[in-house]
TrEMBL record:
It comes from Microbulbifer epialgicus. SUPFAM superfamilies: SGNH hydrolase (SSF52266). InterPro entries: SGNH_hydro_sf (IPR036514). This is Uncharacterized protein.
C-alpha cells in the first residue's frame, strides 16, 4: 500500500506498518511446509490512483512474472 486514497482509505491507516512482516512470515511457513513462495510485493507496485489496488499494467507484469517463476520451477513448460 502506498498512501491510500478514497472513501475507504481510513480502513488502511497504518496497514503497511501492520503488514510489513507478513511476507517474511509467509515465506518462513512456506519453507517449513516445503512449498514455493513468490512475494508479489517485490515484483509489482500499487496504483498511484488509490494506493491499494493494481493498475492494468501491473496485472500484466504479475502474470508474466508468475508464469516465468512457474516455468523456472518446472511447473509449466512451453517452447
Amino acid at each position: 500500500m502506498n498512501n491510500p486514497k478514497g472513501i475507504i482509505s481510513h480502513k488502511f491507516v497504518e496497514a503497511e506498518q501492520r503488514c510489513k512482516d507478513f511476507p517474511a512470515e509467509l515465506e518462513k511457513v512456506s519453507r517449513e511446509l516445503g512449498v514455493h513462495f513468490l512475494d508479489a510485493n517485490t515484483l509489482i507496485k500499487v496504483s498511484e490512483i488509490d494506493g491499494i489496488h493494481l493498475d492494468g499494467d501491473q496485472y500484466s507484469i504479475l502474470v508474466q512474472k508468475v508464469a516465468d517463476y512457474l516455468q523456472k520451477i518446472k511447473v509449466l513448460s512451453w517452447p
